[in-house]
Amino acid sequence: MTLDTEAIDRREAFLLELLTSAALLAKEGFSRQVGQPVGMKGPQDYLTETDGMVEAHIRSRIAETFPEDGFLGEETGGRPGSQAWVVDPIDGTANFARVIPHFCISIAFVANGEVQLGAIVNPILDEVYLARKDRGARMNGKPIHVSATADVTATSFEMGWSNRRPTLDYITAVSTLFEAGSNVRRGACGALGLAYVADGRSDGYAELHMNSWDCLAGLLLVREAGGVTGPFLSLGGLTEGAPVLAANPHVAQLLSRSTGIALLAGPDLLAQDEEGLLRTA
């Protein structure tokens, strides 16, 4: 089923309303988090009561409003189908569980084989990021753009860690970036890391494996804000996850070389590709 512009319009308006109510639930949950029990889904994989509450709210609202749409959530799974909402109710749960105010909600809408809408909300700072394919990216209604940093010694990257890849791979990539002259941070909230690339606070983000609910919204934000990214969906990332890279165009190849993560690139970058790290699909 191919969705027309009006159908995407309705989902965009709905998404903005949904972000407001979901952010309120997350903020209320965070205010109660001190002393609350924390579950573990696996090593360094936290689960709080708020994760489930926020996802249940988002899922029920989508089912009521767009029953024809599929759903894929971090906590309850689902089947994406040809058009679906891909949701992380709390990205940065490790921070949330330890009462560190660096977490967000990430929601993407995928249809026609592409991410059509992507939104991230930081409930603590009341920052709402929204991107629509071919229509740009905004934060709290104002257009955003990736940074213009080109000098490697002025770059500030974020590198996420995943236990799906050997720790040595992560350490090697980070060391390579440090040796090149970059600053490297880890905020433990990949979706916000991508949002910060989109609005220019960070020059690039990379992670050797991410799930779709963590990154689809952020990747669209970066592309619509003038940045470049890696080929996530074409690698089977929707259901299996894949490596993630996003950066401003000036330093994207540096980040790609340092991490070994391929880039999706247009003609300008392809002409400069000397190591075969760029992809057109």
UniProtKB/TrEMBL annotation:
Keywords associated with the record: Hydrolase, Magnesium, Metal-binding
Q: Which residues are listed for Mg(2+) 2 binding in this entry?
A: 90
Q: Does the keyword Metal-binding apply?
A: yes
Any one GO biological process: inositol metabolic process
Q: Which cofactor does it need?
A: Mg(2+)
Q: Which residues bind Mg(2+) 1?
A: 74, 88, 91, 214
- Matches recorded under PANTHER family: INOSITOL MONOPHOSPHATASE (PTHR20854), INOSITOL-1-MONOPHOSPHATASE-RELATED (PTHR20854:SF4)
The UniProt entry's sequence similarity note says:
Belongs to the inositol monophosphatase superfamily.
For this entry, the protein name equals Inositol-1-monophosphatase
Q: Which organism is it from?
A: Paracoccus litorisediminis
